[in-house]
Amino acid sequence: MEKNLFGTLTPISEAADCCGDSCCGDDASTEITHEQLDSVTAVVQHQYAALATNAAERAADSSRVKATDKFYTQAQRDVLPDEAAGASAGCGNPVGIADARPGETVLDLGSGGGIDCFLAAREVGDGGYVIGIDMTPKMLELAQQNAASLGTENVVFKLGHIESIPQPDDTVDLVISNCVIALSEQKDRVYSEIFRILKSGGRFVISDMVTEVPLPADVQASPTEWVACVGGAAVMSEYLELIESTGFTDIEVLKEARTNPDAAYWKSSLIDITIRAYKPAG
Questions:
Q1: What whole-number distance in Å separates Cα of residue 28 and Cα of residue 48?
Q2: What's 131's domain CATH number?
Q3: Pairing between strand 172-178 and 198-211?
């Protein structure tokens, strides 16, 4: 049997430090067992399945600050089902600045309850198409229910991993993602996959969590910090270098903000970032 990558269990709880309700849930605290912590994927799937299961309860809790409250406009929130907002887990609003165009094909990595897919679907119109990719079956079920309640017909949700996107080469105009790539241990593969599926001249607009300096080893090994989008956060300079080395051009940081600027020690180095880059034309 392979050694448990996380070692001793660090329970996930409401008291756990994270980037807030914007990109981590707190509903699975007592349900995670040691056996489930044999991989990052298992931890993330468990947490986000719980987030999907409790989406309606979270939406009804007026004391809870959700990602949609922090990053989305009132006009955007007004067109979303409550359950979609309740399952929101992001650190930005990529679709709000992605300028999706009528007729385009958009793909959302880690689509969750479908928030960004539904907003993008309104922008691409009946002639466009939106694809949501998520590895958690409960999230896909929630997203499909939300799509049915909205009557959205130009969105499809697929089960899949962002390191191996179930989409043919050169078929997508725009890739979006919201605080999901930080959850991957193989960010190089994720960006290679994004490059593969984008059409010539296509682009991505991605919100994610990065850091100014490397995180302490115990933080990187903590399942609590992983599901909080923190443990897997890359150093910003290295993150941008990875994007460039993958082959993307015209890389631009559209938004950058300290998550906890007044926090002590490594926590003050966390950065919410939104990036745009292009696959070269030709």
A1: 9
A2: 3.40.50.150
A3: parallel
Structure tokens belonging to residue 137: 């079956």
Q: Answer whether residue 253 is part of any domain.
A: yes
- Contacts with 199 (C-beta within 8 Å, 6 or more apart), sequence order: 170, 171, 172, 173, 279
Distance CA 231, CA 266 (A): 11
- Domain membership of residue 45 (yes or no) is yes
Position 236 scores a pLDDT of: 96
Domain count within the chain: 1
Is pTM beyond 0.85 here? no
H-helix segments, 151-263: 187-197, 217-220, 223-227, 236-246
Please write the tens of the pLDDT for every residue from 194-220.
Answer: 999 999 999 999 999 999 999 999 888
Write the DSSP symbol of residue 161: B
For residues 229 and 182, the answer to whether their CB atoms sit within 8 Å is yes
Residues in CB range of 212: below 8 A, 6 or more apart: 235, 236, 269, 271
Question: Is 3 within a domain?
Answer: no
